[in-house]
Amino acid sequence: MTFCRLWLAALSLLAVAACQSNTTPELKIRVLTDKDNFVINEEVIARVQLTNETGKTLCFPRPATNEQVAVSGWIEMKAERANGSEHDEFIKVFDGRGKSGKELEKAVKNDWIKLKPGETYLASPFKTLGHLDEPGEWRLTATYHPAEGSFSREYRKSLQKAAQKNGCTLPIVAAQSESVVISVSKRD
After folding, report:
1. Which of 46, 63, 68 shows the shortest CA–CA distance to 126?
2. CB < 8 Å & 24+ apart, contacts of 28-33
3. What pLDDT band is residue 6 in, cutting at 50, 70 and 90?
4. Of 37, 40, 65, 67, which is least packed with CB atoms within 10 Å of its CB?
5. Phi/psi of residue 41, each to 5°?
6. Is 31 exposed, middle or buried (0-12, 13-18, 19+ CB in 10 A)?
7. What pLDDT sits at residue 92?
């Protein structure tokens, strides 16, 4: 009987620990545009700023933009009608083997982005997904998807170990920006 109570208590503690896992994004993401007014069919080129919201140094591969690349992570930026009407957008997906072992550790040391607490990374400008095909208000949103690996969850563990060996932590929670509202008008 005592054994059963101990077993149930242990299971309860495990369940609570699993439910309290980190679901807060480590990075805050912001969409930055040069202007707020566009005309129909104009391309929206914007930048994304990632800010370390933790008390530790974060590091991650330079994220791909508007292409799903699981080994490096990626940033997806969308332009959507503010009225909520649906539209389809397709994103390229790249699966492949990532670096491992000493090659991965060298990449973390020399090539990865490293952000101390409160520091920011500003991505190069890139085109949003979405076609401004009607006038009105539109929302720009961006999502950062951390590196994880294409074929195995074990690859994320390799990324985390390589980051730790280099004195930093790999972000593991996706982050979504708040919407930025832009205005689209007909051509004069």
Report:
1. 46
2. 28/53, 28/175, 29/75, 29/142, 29/143, 29/144, 29/175, 29/176, 29/177, 30/142, 30/177, 30/178, 31/77, 31/140, 31/141, 31/142, 31/177, 31/180, 32/122, 33/140, 33/180, 33/182
3. very low
4. 37
5. 70, 5
6. buried
7. 62
Residue 12 Rama label (left phi>0; alpha psi -120 to 50; beta): alpha
- The encoded tokens of residue 148 equal 């994880």
Q: How far apart are CA 75 and CA 110, in angstroms?
A: 21
Is-above-0.70 flag for pTM? Answer: yes
Task: Decide: 57 and 32 in contact? Cβ < 8 Å.
Answer: no
pLDDT given for residue 47 in this prediction: 94
**Closest-CA residue to 158 (of 105, 94, 95):** 105
66 with 139: CB under 8 angstroms? Answer: no
